[in-house]
Description:
This protein has helices at residues 6-20, 23-30, 50-56, 61-72, 148-159, 179-193, 204-216, 220-228, 244-259, 280-286, 299-312, 319-328, 333-349, 356-364, 376-387, 391-394, 401-417, 422-428, 434-450, 452-465, and strands at residues 34-39, 42-47, 78-83, 125-128, 169-173, 199-203, 232-236, 263-268, 290-294. The protein is of the alpha/beta class and 469 residues long.
Amino acid sequence: MGESNHIEVWKRCLQIIKNNVPDAVYLKWFEPVKPISLEDQLLKIEVPSDAHMRQLEEMPLIDILAKTLKRVIGNDVKLEYTIRFPRTSVNYPHQNTQVASNRPIPFPRNDKENINPFVIPGIQKLTIEPNLNPKYSFDNFIEGVCNRLARTAGVQVAQSPGNNPFNPLFIHGGSGLGKTHLSQAIGLRVKELHPEKIVLYVSAHTFKTQFQNAAVGNKIPDFTHFYEQIDVLIIDDVQFFNTAGTQNAFFHIFNYLQQAGKQVILTSDAAPGNLQGIETRLVQRFRWGLSAELLPPNYETRVKILKAKSANEGIVLSDEVVDYLATKITGSVRELEGTILTLLAHSTLNREDITLELAKKVTKQIVNIDSSELSLDKIRSVVCDYFKITPETIVSKTRKREIVQARQITMYLVRNLTKASLASIGSQMGGKDHATVLHACSTVSDLIDTDKTIRRYVSDLERQLRPGK
Ligand code: ADP
Ligand code: MG
């Protein structure tokens, strides 16, 4: 059997299956399956959901599937499932609309035969996309006093997930200090050291949307079951768990995973005790393990980060320039990164060398605002200048994408840089309620992790608003 003919082979299987099962069953359970690869009689297939896989593993479907695969591929055939992790929850879990759901499968059931031939250890295996970005590794995560405790705990968690005193590991700290990076680094290291473990990284925002969609579609048991299979569950930015339903679902999943000896890693912008709008019973759970804070980097760490990041971009900064930047830019790692990217852009676009002059120029573009005086008004006007829109437009009701984005970024910055309450931010941003503000904050926070342009906007703006003292 050739190596790359999985598509052909699966087509042949489908033909056989089609002739042997009712159309409705074929359409609902077999047609949505995608072949991924075939090697040494190991067929990998992708199924739309965990529920789908479980159904295929049941009699009678497993019987026809096993017989067909043996016939087409060979007697030693093995099957491996992959469930595509739903990034947006729109299709969570997948439903084939051509067939009414929950229709009983019209097969005669023979209970004596109800032995799943695939449930032989090592034959059937489940994989779930861990949703990790390889660039967020420990190798790229620079150590400093500011992150030592969290980093060390992270390394230990990755070595023996679920079996360490730090469960859950709760990482907290301000925006741009490395929470997403460190939590993903732990996931990546687990995959390296324990490839058999099921790791999943998910933002609290996505978790919440998935849960809400599951609730609408009566799929909460599927949702819960999906999460209960994870060995190492990483949930980023749990401060966005603001609804009772999501918190309740998470509470049960958390308890289940803890009892099963699985590892949970959480990040948040606040220490457990300072989380707002999170139920006490959850906060208590968060305190079971270790909570470790990420602090803004000190001068030495800033120097190390600037050197490493510039080398990574293929540029050389003189000691003078590094010293200047490390002295001036004191906010977050994201700001340091943003500065390097701005310098890089200048030097390539204008063919300028990165001199101290250029470094000063770039740093000077920073409006000098004393951060103790930062107010919503000031932030809003800096954002408006930056995007070249008027203060009236930004608080208007328009749904134009750029305006909505600027408005959301403003709310995110005000939330992170001032002590304004959600309700007061909402009322000053055109009469929005607190849920809208929170939604805006979690959207921007997600985009920072996935969208380079937005990351750049936010770091530029943060730099302007929070200049080095
Ligand atoms: P947070 O999730 O806390 O807002 P991120 O993890 O997104 O912050 O970090 C912001 C940026 O800074 C990312 O590009 C990340 O790679 C980088 N970063 C943060 N901390 C470090 C570190 N200690 N070493 C290297 N890069 C870091
Ligand atoms: Mg983050």
